[in-house]
Amino acid sequence: MLEQRYRWKNKHLREHIDVLDGNRAPHILLKNTTYLNQALRKWMKANIWIYEDRIIYVGEKLPDNIDNCEMVDCTNQYLVPGYIEPHSHPSQLYNPLSFSRYASHFGTTTLINDNLPFLLQLEKKKAFSLLKELRNIPVTMYWWSRFDGQTELIDEDTVFSHGAVKSWLEHDAVLQGGELTGWPKLLDGDDMMLHWIQEAKRMRKKIEGHFPGASEKTLAKMTLFGADCDHEAMTGDEVMSRLLQGFYVSLRHSSIRPDLPKLISEIHELGIDQYDKFFYTTDGSPPSFYEGGFIDCLIKIAIEHGVPVIDAYNMATINIARYYNIEYLHGNIATGRVANINFLTDMMEPAPVSVMAKGKWVKKDGEVIPDEQEIEWSDFDFKPLDLDWDLSLKEDFEFSMPFGIELVNNVITKPYSLSNDVGHEELTFDDDECFFMLIDREGKWRINTILKGFANKLCGFAGSYTNTGDIMLIGKRKRDMHLAFKRLKEIGGGIILTEHGEVIHELPLKLQGIMSTKEVPELIEEENELKSLLCERGYRFDDPVYTLSFFSTTHLPYIRLTQRGVYDVMNKTILFPTIMR
To answer: How many angstroms separate the CA atoms of 304 and 181, rounded?
Structure first.
């Protein structure tokens, strides 16, 4: 549990009253504001007093005491609440600190985050200590509690023990259970998952679904089980079916599903003109997706596609806060709320020129305010990978499976029958078949197969950026794959490309091999370079970062490489088990 149960202690609340009484000065006074009042659904005039991280007063009055108070004239500006991302995966190469810092520069000041990397990589005490540390940064962070690992884990009963899941659900910073990537197990009679859902509901916390392509009947069952929201609608009809079954709907606009323009157009065609049950989400996209902005871009799309302006802002602010029962802190500019405020030059332009998070400027008059906040990641067991084992070219690089895995798009895979002889040191460059290996990060097991459709000129690739943090090798030439693995060991995890005996690209991920310590703008450049190099070598899709992380995830069809072996998603069976080393 968090050490401080309440956001403001009694002495802080007395100080806030002293500001109103004139015994203390506010730290910041925003004068002559035009702000969005969501209770009245109007743009209104007011003066706003801020003390430390809290809005103390919104109204016509000015404070009696202004000693050492920073006064800002907001004439000709429009103030809206800080934006909220309700479905964040803060470990897509970036880390939670770097990601939140970058998001705040575009006005997103609250993130509701996936806890899966912490569940899989950290002992619970360390994870909770890190959550406590992250309370000190300008951006506000809340979390989900996962009920499954969205893959086949060897030690799933240990990772997702009742005690572990219940501890996360009870944590003050956790707002919901899910996302329910393992919902087929729920339908098949998994009573432990159902119990966790019941526990979350007892605690007045939400349940986030993950129901791509679900039928109306399945959606109805999920509502009865306790699911509250889903972000997987890909058409207007799917949005409507979710609304009719009682769901809130996160309208997704991500790197692999940039659906928001289509979704808004189609819901308007269906006659939907009420927006209170809609949010936006970028669904944890890789760094390059955010090059031009964050939730502000989604608000802009909504406005351009006919969503009324106030509703467009509400879908990024008050709708989310009300849904998660945090309206008393977030999502609106009103007395008592956390001072997360975006300053706009035009109500039709949601990209802010200034941003305040917890009463501190993170951006002012177009200039980013340097943030000196750092985290000593090693204190929380996020360190470079220490791989104290080796691969044998002779023994480990054997490929004798009768069928392989074909990549159909960014994330969907299917089985295919091998047509070529794969018993050589390298594969022909005339087609798009590659050797494909997943190896335990402890070196205890491996699974070898052939991957079709990923690239046709890729000599060697090694990556620790996988769903479980295990090691993935891909390539045409075994020696280049081996070289890539050796370089991966040397840098402590990351992504490596090799070609004819040379390393041609590396992207270090020094935090357990899954996250970088670098800032997002630098990661954008590195990701774009990786994407360019892979495309030159035959990768024909849009998002290699998602492709790599989803090779082992079992919430999408059809064939996956997991810790337990080659897994048939639809039939829920292991086709070929892992080989112990």
So the answer is: 33
* pLDDT at 4 exceeding the cut of 60: no
- 521-530, pLDDT tens digit by residue? 999 999 999 9
Q: What is the CA radius of gyration of the chain?
A: 25
Is the separation of the CB atoms in 487 and 498 below 8 Å? yes
Please provide the DSSP assignment of 304-334 as one string.
HTT--HHHHHHTTTHHHHHHTT-TTTSSS-S
Please tell me the distance from the alpha carbon of residue 167 to that of residue 243, in angstroms, as a whole number: 32
Instruction: Give the mean model confidence (pLDDT) for residues 35-40.
Output: 96
Instruction: Please give the structure tokens belonging to residue 346.
Output: 């035009």
> What is the homologous superfamily of the domain 82-323 according to CATH?
Metal-dependent hydrolases (3.20.20.140)
Give the SS3 label for residue 7.
Answer: coil
| Cβ atoms 299, 83 nearer than 8 A | yes
**Distances from the Cα of 126 to the Cαs of 21, 341, 397, in angstroms?**
43, 32, 37
Q: What are the residue ranges spanned by the domains of the chain?
A: 82-323, 403-580
How many Å apart are CA 115 and CA 556, to the nearest integer? 20
Decide: 445 and 492 in contact? Cβ < 8 Å. no
Task: Report the C-alpha gap between 121 and 402 in whole angstroms.
Answer: 34
Residue 569 exposure: Cα atoms within 13 Å on the Cβ side? 24
- Say how far apart CA 426 and CA 411 lie, in whole Å: 26
Number of helices (H), then strands (E), belonging to the chain: the values are: 17, 29
- Tell me the C-alpha distance between 465 and 393, whole Å: 22
C-alpha to C-alpha distance for 233 and 432, rounded to whole angstroms:
32
Phi/psi region, residue 473 (left: phi>0; alpha: psi -120 to 50; beta: rest), is beta
Q: Which of 373, 451, 432, 300 is nearest to 139 (CA)?
A: 373
> Rounded CA gap, 476 and 434, in Å?
5
Beta-carbon contacts of 394 under 8 Å, excluding residues fewer than 6 positions away, are: none
d(CA 57, CA 32): 14
Is this structure's pTM higher than 0.90?
A: yes
| Cα–Cα distance for residue pair 90/107, rounded to 1 Å | 16
pLDDT bin (cut points 50, 70, 90) of residue 57 is very high
- In terms of Cβ atoms closer than 10 Å to its own Cβ (0-12, 13-18, 19+), residue 61 is exposed
d(CA 202, CA 185): 22
472 forms beta bridges with 438, 463
Mean pLDDT value across the chain:
96
Residue type at position 40: L
pLDDT tens profile 63-79: 999 999 999 999 999 99
Which residues lie below 8 Å from residue 469, measured CB to CB, with a gap of 6+?
120, 121, 441, 512, 513, 514
Cβ-contact 253, 278 below 8 angstroms: no
For residues 238, 551, 413, 193, the Cα torsion angle rounded to the nearest 10 degrees is -50
Q: Which residue do the tokens 């490596």 mark?
A: 496
Contact 240, 272 (CB under 8 A): yes
- Cross-strand partners of 37: 42
HSE value, Cβ hemisphere, 13 Å, CA-based, for 554: 25
Instruction: Name the 3-class secondary structure at 238.
Output: helix
Peptide bond into 179 cis (omega under 30): yes
